[in-house]
Give the backbone structure.
Amino acid sequence: MTAYELVCGMEVHAELKTNTKMFCGCKNDPFHAPQPNIYTCPVCLGMPGGLPVANNKAIEWTIKLGLALNCKINLFSHFDRKNYFYPDLAKGYQISQYDQPFCYDGKLETEMGTVRIRRIHLEEDTAKLQHKTINGEKVSLIDFNRSSVPLIEIVTEPDLITPEHAKAYGKALRQILRFLDIADCDMEQGGMRLEANVSIRPIGEKDLPNYKVELKNINSFRFLEKAVAFEVKRQAVVLEEGQTPVQETRGWDDDKGETYSQRVKEDAEDYRYFPDPDLPPLRFTEEQINAWCAELPELPAALKARWASEYSIDPKYAEVLSEDKDSAEWADQIFRKAADQQLNPNAIANAIVNKKVAASVGDSAEKVIAAFTELNKTESMDEGELSKIVAEVVTENVDAVAQYKAGKVQVLGFFMGQVQRKLGKKVDVQLVKAALEKVLNS
Ligand SMILES: [Zn+2]
């Protein structure tokens, strides 16, 4: 059988967490709304005559994401109408960006290689459709709370070389969105959605395959990894039979552990994009872009490099502790305080990650350091105190000593319990065991 390699690009959508929607003043909080259809107005309900006004914060955040991903920024840009019919799109078109997205030509470094970013554009989300059965009747319900929520789309080049790489890219992207504090990325609710375009080619071939399968509606990184891995195998079988895999959209069924066909594309879709006449084009100055660039926070890669050089934090602990912004800021404070007190920040990172101390994000640095110091105390327990207590326990339990010496080694457990009770604190059991054996075997 031929050896194949993966050719995979990704399209990720994320809802921005601005206070208001993309083109109207309605509240942007679809996941916490107490009722459907309460954050609505004529604009986001798609009523004729409703005039959209672009949300400047959403534009600024999209460009900041572009800067964080090393993108070039279009100084002239505009919104387009993408025309198609679907019940969750009341206007009959979605406001999006076509030929002049805000950001293009960027890259994101992951531990498995560089991923080139083709473009980042800003658009509006659609309403949410729900199919239900009410009183025995099948109905479709529409909730417009989500209609016109700002939505960014980040498109990569086909640079993802393995299923694990696709997952690593998704996680790295989410980490940056969270560091910028512009999106919650709640995958379960659909606040972040993953799509992968998957095809394979014989190893050594340079041309892109003449087909691609779109994996859609994937709501976890783990499912993404599994679905891409499944497709690699499935497509290899089709190619080995001398066929070309069908160009289609597929979903992931986690119960069956396989992808399934959702929609076969007959023709390339024609959305008849054209510039939205209700929204003026946008112009930015270099000064404006530079000012936004200066406002970027310290991003994950820079943070991890600083932790390594200032505090010698092991990369695997840094990875866990920098997963989101809150955790990163929390760990940073702890490391700084620990270094001030001449403690070893990496030992504390180890204790937190491996749950040797009970610490959760938000606990004060003092509290975490105190817990760590306490833990250290148990480990370097005063040997004099320990041998004194061991001697006491041995003297008080002559019968048990006799049993131990006669070969009944299980008695050691009893001795250990006695010593720990007398010590009255959490101790390193290995230390106690060693001290006991030293006395009992002498
Ligand atoms: Zn509205």
The chain has a mean pLDDT of 93. Residues 21, 24, 26, 40-41, 43-44 surround zinc ion (CB under 6 Å). The chain has three domains: 4-283, 298-375, 383-440.
